[in-house]
């Protein structure tokens, strides 16, 4: 005890990396349970900035054991690249554990991700191109390669050949690309096995023992609720379960062991890639949020789409994930706006709806119903207690809390590690 899940409430990039880092010194294990190097977490520590993709953000805290659990898809080349980059900056990466059951992203997954996106043309998802979807598709199709397969050359060869059999027909005949040599893929993967060996573990067992020993385990979600393959804006989603339930299946720790669910939510909304986004702004306010909030993807550098806070989405997130606490980030970005609209409901075909519509076509043309809140002009980046916030900022936070379905326990007022206002202890 305790086990805490931390997830994104919107479409990603809410500041999960910073929130994980914030809890860092109080947790013993940080577990990545879904996604892969499609994630991009920027963590600012003093004057140092770290961009993490595959590795959980907890790796930056000395003494924490980072875990890549079974639900993750691992690009082994990226794994070692990130480990080396962090190691050369003095971060201790020696404790990392990788589940033997995690699936592997290979060169053919990256290729297929890119060619299918190109093939979709106007209908493309806008993926990160990291091979995430094709690797999960192989997992579900039962032709995936797991970390443990890298330790049995015969099995690995058989599985790669099996997986490439059909794929090469498709690559050559449909996409007009060169076939991928199984031999090359196998050799590439085998080149990592010796370095990988000491990290590989039965991470479900390790985490069970840790919890029994009274350790604190934080499950750090990648992506977010609205990008979840079951509960997000399908098909404009990622290919894993980014919601709190994914922490159980993605780690082999039972759901009834989880004590708290923290959702990180931005004080406005952003999205990268295609798909519905009711509060999206196309005017100068949208540009203001993008430039002031520095809303450019950590992974692909793409400008993020921006819009106002969407309370029905926050309520949906609270329900789907069983949120106990929200961490509201980037409140400082709103400083200087005379008024701040918040979406409190939608209108669909002229009818007011208070919940996220279950039908995608309804969600696509849902028109936000806005309530306007008064803005503030005072710089809040140095504020550390709720009472010090300008009255209008306090009212904004309390209004969001009222309409979002759970308490707001911490508020981000700047990118730095300590730029946070704590209202309730996140671990109790
Ligand atoms: P993640 O994917 O959820 O970890 O989020 P990203 O790292 O992709 O994007 C969040 C960005 O916002 C990062 O650049 C953070 O440094 C920054 N950030 C986080 N919290 C705050 C905050 O309260 N205020 C400001 N101004 N920036 C923040
Ligand atoms: P973090 O963890 C924002 C989006 C992509 C695309 C869709 C599918 O930093 O919040 P994929 O490559 O996963 O198949 O792409 O999901 N996406 C993200 N958007 N933040 C992320 O991660 C994302 N990971 C994937 O832009 O729309
Ligand atoms: Mg991100």
UniProtKB/TrEMBL annotation:
Principal cellular location given in the protein's record:
cytoplasm
Fetch the CDD domains from UniProt: AdSS (cd03108)
Q: Which residues bind substrate?
A: 298-304
Q: What InterPro entries does UniProt report for this protein, alphabetically?
A: Adenylosuccin_syn_GTP-bd (IPR018220), Adenylosuccin_syn_Lys_AS (IPR033128), Adenylosuccinate_synth_dom1 (IPR042109), Adenylosuccinate_synth_dom2 (IPR042110), Adenylosuccinate_synth_dom3 (IPR042111), Adenylosuccinate_synthetase (IPR001114), P-loop_NTPase (IPR027417)
Cell compartment(s), UniProt: Cytoplasm
Entry keywords, A to Z: Cytoplasm, GTP-binding, Ligase, Magnesium, Metal-binding, Nucleotide-binding, Purine biosynthesis
Cofactor(s) needed for function:
Mg(2+)
> Which residues hold IMP?
13-16, 38-41, 128, 142, 223, 238, 302
Q: Which residues participate in Mg(2+) binding?
A: 13, 40
Give residues annotated as binding GTP: 12-18, 40-42, 304, 330-332, 412-414
Gene3D superfamilies attached here?
Adenylosuccinate Synthetase, subunit A, domain 1, Adenylosuccinate Synthetase, subunit A, domain 2, Adenylosuccinate Synthetase, subunit A, domain 3
What is said about its interaction partners and assembly? Answer: Homodimer.
Q: What is this protein called?
A: Adenylosuccinate synthetase
Q: Which species is listed as the source?
A: Herbiconiux daphne
Origin organism lineage: Bacteria, Bacillati, Actinomycetota, Actinomycetes, Micrococcales
């Amino acid at each position: 005890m305790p086990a805490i899940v931390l997830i994104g409430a919107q479409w990603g990039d809410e500041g999960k990396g910073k929130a994980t880092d914030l809890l860092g010194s109080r947790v013993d294990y940080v577990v990545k349970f879904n996604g892969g190097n499609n994630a991009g977490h920027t963590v600012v520590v003093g004057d140092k900035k770290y961009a993490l993709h595959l590795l959980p953000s907890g790796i930056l805290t000395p003494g924490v054991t980072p875990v890549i659990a079974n639900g993750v898809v691992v690009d082994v080349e990226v794994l070692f690249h990130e480990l080396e980059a962090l190691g050369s900056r003095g971060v201790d990466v020696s404790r990392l554990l990788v589940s033997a059951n995690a699936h592997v992203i290979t060169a053919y997954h990256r290729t297929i991700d890119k060619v299918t996106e190109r093939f979709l043309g106007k209908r493309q998802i806008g993926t990160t191109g990291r091979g995430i979807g094709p690797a999960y598709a192989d997992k579900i199709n039962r032709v995936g390669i797991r970390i443990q397969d890298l330790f049995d050359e015969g099995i690995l060869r058989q599985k790669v050949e099996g997986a490439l059999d059909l794929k090469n027909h498709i690559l050559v005949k449909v996409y007009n690309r060169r076939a991928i040599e199984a031999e090359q893929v196998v050799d590439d993967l085998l080149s990592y096995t010796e370095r990988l060996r000491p990290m590989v573990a039965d991470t479900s067992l390790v985490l069970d023992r840790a919890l029994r020993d009274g350790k604190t385990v934080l499950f750090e979600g990648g992506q977010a609720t609205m990008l979840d393959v079951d509960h997000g804006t399908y098909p404009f989603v990622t290919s894993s379960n980014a919601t709190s339930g994914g922490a159980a299946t993605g780690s082999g720790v039972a759901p009834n062991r989880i004590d708290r669910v923290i959702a990180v939510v931005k004080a406005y909304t952003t999205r990268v890639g295609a798909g519905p986004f009711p509060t999206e702004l196309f005017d100068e306010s949208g540009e203001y949020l993008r430039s002031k909030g520095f809303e450019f993807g950590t992974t692909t550098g793409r400008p993020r789409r921006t819009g106002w806070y969407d309370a029905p989405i926050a309520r949906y997130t609270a329900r789907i994930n069983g949120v106990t606490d929200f961490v509201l980030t980037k409140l400082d970005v709103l400083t200087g706006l005379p008024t701040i609209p918040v979406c409190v409901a939608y209108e669909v075909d002229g009818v007011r709806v208070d919940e996220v519509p279950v039908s995608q076509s309804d969600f696509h043309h849902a028109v936000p119903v806005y309530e306007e809140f008064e803005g503030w002009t005072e710089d809040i980046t140095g504020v550390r207690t709720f009472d010090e916030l300008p009255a209008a900022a306090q009212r904004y936070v309390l209004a969001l809390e009222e309409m979002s379905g759970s308490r707001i326990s911490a508020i981000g007022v700047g990118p730095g590690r300590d730029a946070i206002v704590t209202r309730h202890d996140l671990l109790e």
